[in-house]
Design goal:
single chain, three-stranded antiparallel β-sheet, about 20% strand, three-stranded mixed β-sheet, alpha+beta
Length: about 180
Amino acid sequence: GRVGDAANKARKELEVLLEASAERLGASELESKLVDDQVDVTLPGAPPRPVGHAHLIARTTRLIEDVMVGLGYRVMEGPEIEHDYYNFTALNHPPGHPARMLQDTFYVQSHPDVLLRTHTSPVQVRSMEAQAPPIFIVVPGKVYRRDSDATHSPMFHQMEGLAIAEDLTLADLKGTLLALSRAI
């Protein structure tokens, strides 16, 4: 008996010591893992993933603008709601011209001399009023016409250019169009 009792007592004490030691090691290991896995919330987060992309018309417009700016042109914009003078009269459209008719143009009913522009050309007139030559501009923008069927939309996009300077020739136009075509 005494040896057996002493051995059981020693075994129980060893088991308690082993259990305590295992708890300490487990706690130490857990503490170490917590420290290693700690996230520093003051660091910047991952960059957000881009959502979507630019519309095809916007991308094409920007591409053409970039090419033309590289060729020395400026991008100009103008109002989509325009006066008859800028949209027609200053561009030599006589009073009876078909483009002025109600079936082709969106007029503002309360102001018959105000309309949704039918082309971006009024910006040419505005640019020529605002500055002396040389003028090199491209004009992107939305335009409106009373077309609405399977092949037409009442609102569409247009891009036009204007170059005014001494000694310009058709060769300059051809070179500009060739450079633009190659770039896009």
